[in-house]
Amino acid sequence: MTGDPRTPKAAPLREQVRDTIRQRIFDGYYAPGTRLIERDLAEEFSVSRLPVREALRMLRQEGLVVEKATRGSLVASLTEKDVRDLFDLRGALEVLACRLAAERATATQLEDLSELLDAADALLAAGRRDKAQRTNNEFHDRVIDIADNDLLRAALAPLTGRLHWLFRHVDDLAELIGEHRRLLAAIASGDPDTAAAESARHIAKYRAQFPELHATVTSGHQ
Questions:
Q1: pLDDT (mean) for 36-52
Q2: CB–CB of 168/26 below 8 Å?
């Protein structure tokens, strides 16, 4: 259990339930193909079935859950084509996000990104890999926020969950954090072309690894 969906009270109950189920998917607690039964989840979380139903609906929109007529809600599997499609869109949209971030980032925002990567390094050194992974994943989310383009954010929102799910299976997390430091330096340069080029290189590097990443995800290996 990654947290009690009844707390904190800052978010609506359906979002708290969604976040808990999503994190369980990321952590491998729910492997691809796992059946998610509303009644059982509601009982476990001590909530009614309505917020669970709404949470599963939101996770379907993110592509993390699929609905099967005979089996109900299942944790989605990523096919090779799914992964390829993700990289196609990521290559277009995240490069744009980094270009805009280079134009718009404030000194405070850049410092926040640096501190985020420092925190990921510290968590990894302390042996808290899962928390380090979550912190590192947040880097891309923050860059999208810095880009400050509502349409871009909306276009990326349905992909974020699947991208986080995929990239939590990268074996060398220290190297990935280092990659993000290079990307941060490119954004901090204030040169949109430099930031875009570095983003494209970063995405291409991990796209080249996607057959291995896909095999890891579909096997449920942690």
A1: 95
A2: yes
Q: Does pLDDT of 221 surpass 50?
A: no
- The tokens for 9 are 């009270």
Residues 101-108 have a mean pLDDT of 98
Predicted TM-score of the model (pTM): 0.77
First to last CA, the chain: 16
Domains and CATH numbers, the chain: 13-75 (1.10.10.10), 80-219 (1.20.120.530)
| Nearest to 215, CA basis, from 92, 6, 91, 32 | 32
Nearest to 148 by CA among 194, 198, 102: 102
Q: For helices 13-27 and 38-45, what crossing angle results, to 10°?
A: 110
- C-alpha dist (Å) from residue 13 to 47, 62, 204: 9, 18, 38
Q: How confident is the model at residue 213 (pLDDT cuts 50, 70, 90)?
A: low
Q: Which residues pair with 74 in a beta bridge?
A: 35, 66
Query: How far apart are the C-alpha atoms of 108 and 125, rounded to whole Å?
Result: 26
